[in-house]
Design a protein that fits this description.
The protein has 101 residues and is of the alpha/beta class. It has one domain: Transcription Regulator spoIIAA, CATH 3.30.750.24. The chain has three helices and six strands. Helix 1 packs parallel to helix 2 (53-67) and helix 2 crosses helix 3. The chain is globular.
Amino acid sequence: MGLAMHHVATVSDLMLPEQIRYPVDALLESLRTGAKQLDHIVLNCRQLRLIEFNAAAPLLAGVTDLARGKTVEWRDMPRLASTLLQLISGEGKLNISHRLP
């Protein structure tokens, strides 16, 4: 009798920096490296304090590109940064959990 192989979802937090400024290429490259083997991407925003307005759209586009259909969760995000990303994304549905005050 053979053993049944079960696929185990891989989840790991990817820590975002305290400030996200334009250009975001280096940040996206580091996230891409960390997200390659993940089934569910968790962006840990615990340290995040600022997203520059000019960086918001390229950040969202880059995260969407690296996700390629995977679920992306923005965890522990400050409300102001969350509001900016939600405004920039338009009708996009971002999975954001907010930092408690």
